[in-house]
Design goal:
By secondary structure, the chain is an alpha/beta fold. The protein has a single domain (5-208, 227-270), classed as NAD(P)-binding Rossmann-like Domain (Rossmann fold, 3-Layer(aba) Sandwich), CATH 3.40.50. The chain is 40% helix and 12% strand. The protein has 9 helices and 7 strands; from the N terminus they run E-H-E-H-E-H-E-H-E-H-E-H-H-E-H-H. The chain has helices at 14-25, 50-59, 74-82, 112-140, 161-181, 199-205, 228-240, 254-261, 273-282, and strands at residues 5-9, 29-34, 63-68, 89-92, 143-148, 186-192, 251-253. The radius of gyration is 18 Å and the shape is globular. This is SDR family NAD(P)-dependent oxidoreductase.
């Protein structure tokens, strides 16, 4: 297989980092993009950096190239595009909305500036990335575009309105782009993780990746938590699939692709958030009476 070239937008931490590293594990050259570097931070005010991620990509067997790129700034993305001769995989994982989301607050009582920031960071960045980077794929007549979202259907679960609109928009973006791109040999999908065990989530529960199971006592649903590598392995499986076009336009999930490609998380288990959610929230099973191991 020809060495794959990927851009992971929003690869500083979380899903983006897990995806970048797992693409590295299949030998890809990964342009690790984000706003936080070892010399400058972002409004997220987190310690993770694009250089850290790039080193992890290289250590996994790929070639990690850190590029500071603010996807709200079109000129930054144009500069990134100018460095690329080809592009096989575009992972649109820019988010940067957590500091501005007001879950639990009625929209009309929320901060409008924060709501608009969620929209700009979560949707406009993806549009800028697509508009600027897709021409590379169109010229070569091939490629895979992945819109990272939250959820695989349009059911509303009571989250903040701007958050729901962003995540829904990304699923619809993949659906629309799949039709526009199909004639150019390009596949576009949306992809969601389950209960993601990001750096911020671990910190919020006061645990580490090594001790994450200690948080189950606080939240039983954490028993289904998956590392960012899980969605990363889903992306790697899609990247290696010669028949990936069969997924075009669909809203996929880490757990549905696990069932298809049979990959595991870092601990060797296969967390199935979809089945857990259906049984606990759909069928009304008491999570304290079931064995989480049966869902991993």
């Amino acid at each position: 297989m020809t060495e794959l070239v990927a851009v992971v937008a929003g690869a500083t931490r979380g899903c983006g980092r897990g995806i970048a590293v797992e693409l590295g594990a299949i030998g890809a050259t990964v342009y690790v993009t984000g706003r936080t570097t070892r010399s400058s931070t972002s409004p997220m005010n987190r310690p993770e950096t694009i250089e850290d991620t790039a080193e992890l990509v290289t250590a996994a067997g790929g070639n990690g190239i850190p590029v500071r790129c603010d996807f709200t700034v079109a000129s930054d993305v144009r500069e990134l595009a100018s460095r690329l001769d080809r592009l096989d995989i575009l992972v649109n994982d820019v988010w940067g909305g957590d500091p501005f989301v007001e879950h639990g607050t009625p929209f009309w009582e929320s901060d409008l500036d924060k709501a608009l920031s969620v929209h700009r960071n979560g949707i406009e960045t993806h549009l800028i990335g697509l508009h600027t980077l897709l021409p590379l794929m169109v010229r070569q007549g091939s490629g895979l575009v992945i819109e990272v979202t939250d959820g695989d259907d349009e059911t509303y679960h009571g989250v903040a309105l701007p958050y729901f609109l962003v995540k829904s928009a990304l699923r619809r973006t993949a659906q629309a782009m799949s039709q526009q791109l199909r004639e150019h040999g390009i596949t576009a999908v949306a992809l969601t993780p389950g209960f993601i065990r990001s750096e911020a989530m671990l910190e919020g529960f006061g645990v580490t990746e090594a001790t994450w199971r200690d948080a189950i006592a606080e939240d039983i649903h954490f028993s289904m938590a998956e590392s960012p590598h899980y969605i990363g392995r889903a992306v790697a499986a899609l990247a290696k699939d010669p028949n990936v076009a069969r997924w075009s336009g669909q809203s996929l999930s880490s757990w549905s692709l696990m069932r298809e490609y049979d990959f595991t998380d870092l601990d060797g288990t296969q967390p199935d958030w979809g089945r857990w959610y259906e049984d606990i929230f759909g069928k009304g099973l008491d999570p304290n009476t079931v064995d989480p191991a049966d869902y991993r």
